[in-house]
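Intended use. Records like the one below are meant for learning the mapping from a protein sequence to its folded structure. Do not use them to infer anything beyond what is encoded.
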Amino acid sequence: MSPEMTYRLILALVMGLLFTGLLYWKRPRPVTAFSGKEKHRYTPYFAYWLLPGFLLLIVCFLPLMLPRGGGSSLLGLLFQAFLHLALYNSLLLLLLPLLRRFLQPQTCVVLWLLPNYLYLCMSSENFQLDRPLLILRLPAAAICIGCWVWAAGFAVVLGWKIFSHLRFRRRILKDALAAADPSTARLWEELRQRAGYSSKRLPLLVSPAVSTPLSIGLFPSTIRVVLPQRDYTQRELDLILRHELVHIGRGDSTAKFFLTFCTALCWFNPLMWAAMKQGSEDLELSCDQEVLDGSDEEGRREYARLLLRTAGEQAGFTTCLSASAASLRRRLQRVLHPARRFICGISAGLAAFGLVMTFGWATLAYDVTGQEVFFPGDTREHWRISSIGLTDAGNCQAADPEALMDYLAGLELECLAGQYTFPRQERELSIFLSGPDGVRFLSIRDDVAQSFPLGTASYEGGNRYLVAGGVNWTYIESLLNPE
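Structure written out for the chain above:
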């Protein structure tokens, strides 16, 4: 096993063990003071910005890397990311009825959000595979057009979602006022302190523009809890506000942004849209379970009646008590008839292990010629062979330099999107070429070729090319004279 695969296996085992234990200890805990800092009763499952932040960083640097030879590597990472997301979430969508039957909603939520940690496989060269197991071969023009179409769709979907969120936020907060009812304010203060938030955080507002209680805001300083202009009993307010505090503490609005980002990344896959909708529904199911933890049958019935009476509009990255018609039946069934379901952290551990181990198995490839790879930027006549090395023969001289360069220029190669190590093979031809731009190194093995100018960074010269049909070693040897 190569060192890279060993590192990957260790990472997969560590991630599997971590997420196996996550579901057993990630539960509401009592509020305690420590060093003057807030200890929140509810905390997020993940740092939801990891994968979106990393992929957006790649997109930002892609224009800079394209002229310097790193475009295919970054393109490979993007392709592998949305391919993994699409396959994983599609599989999870198909298994969801079975998972919801036997597992608690918290387990399903963790399964939906696990791909957030794919960035670990993308951010280090130590986890590269030896070679891809599946290569999708497309013309270079088709890949170029596909990239532009994908980028346009990604920008439109994500931009529209963000715009809708900001427009909805502005509309509901424009005429919102602080809750003036003393009993409501007193209850909110009590619940907020019990959840571990200071009195300066999380303002409670009343707005004429909403018809259902909700919380909105992706960052701690922007979070607002908004109630409609209607009367609630103290018991109803207690359930509503506890529901929103669970959402806020766990960062469910940010989790919904992560699900939206994944949808935009794989906007061409209709299963992803359905999968992300189900993921948002599981966030609500798990929140219901947190609120009703320890409630008796009468408390559950009261919560079910509140669900039936609470209906309204929600948009953007908001969380609210109201349920859509499609999910209301399922939520009511879970509330009124809570069946025994299992945490089953091993399911999250196995999913994390599989995600890490299989990342990079598939990649894109497009045809290029040896002329483009070995003699870029100028005609072949301007390049001269400085030295040649051949495995088992040592240093060699070219008996016919022009014939050798003709053979190299005519090789049919496939450029792989992404980085792979391709372990050292039995034979290797090493050539140093001198040209107008300096010295260039060529390495040709049984089925892999590489070429880069000396002194470049690894991302500029790390691309490896598959040699279609292999290398004709007999012909190459006939053109060389050992020193």
